[in-house]
TrEMBL record:
GO terms for molecular function: monoacylglycerol lipase activity. Keywords: Hydrolase. It comes from Chitinophaga agrisoli. This is Alpha/beta fold hydrolase. One of its GO terms (biological process) is acylglycerol catabolic process. PANTHER family: MONOACYLGLYCEROL LIPASE, MONOACYLGLYCEROL LIPASE ABHD6.
Amino acid sequence: MDYEIKTLGKFKYIEEGEGEPLVLLHGLFGALSNFRDLLDYFRQYNKVVIPMLPLFDLNILETTVGGLAKYVHKFIETLGYQKVHLLGNSLGGHVALVYLLKHPEAPIRSLTLTGSSGLFENGMGETYPKRGDYEYIRKKTELTFHDPAMATQELVDEVFGIVNNRLQVIKIIALAKSAIRHNLGEELSDIKIPTLLVWGQNDTITPPMVGEEFHRLIPNSELHLIDKCGHAPMMEVPGEFNVILHGFLERVEKQVS
């Protein structure tokens, strides 16, 4: 992805396009490249913003879902964004939810969750991360997608590099445990803004029933299930994902105007 990474104080982020900010939060093994197709499409309509979440840079006590939510709050506050459309995949969705619940006054117009944790998540397994075993990491990475070919060598190499860094493994485990502990079931009814839920029918990490439960618990929500799609719809079926998201954002605009 050949986009400029901007720096403002402790924040590093991509910002492309003009219009109402569309802020994208990546997951535990996510990267800026996860949103390539989404960014290329929506920069025509929105100011698309991808903060680089400090998964490995916070001290161990702040390496939690709440710690990342605090970071997102400071980021949006510092950049002075208004009328924000917030989108999170996997752990990024969980972070978005905690941020919104802690800051109901935040300038957020809409929320989009795709494969979000916060209710239930199948982790990488009891033996994960398994250092030094490239084939094991490749197979685990493939489970993210319906089509295993989506787990490119570049993506597997990235995950392999993370799990072979001892400090990063400790941070990954801390975040995963924090996500499991921080179940939001009882609080989700407090989220009143328009919410879009996009789930892969073949998501084995946060299965479709998780999306259905989010839909039941979040009052002003709509759920879209995509066939032949896993845990990262914006990567695996970007065309369909972008059409769904664009239609949702247009409906939000009409509700407000």
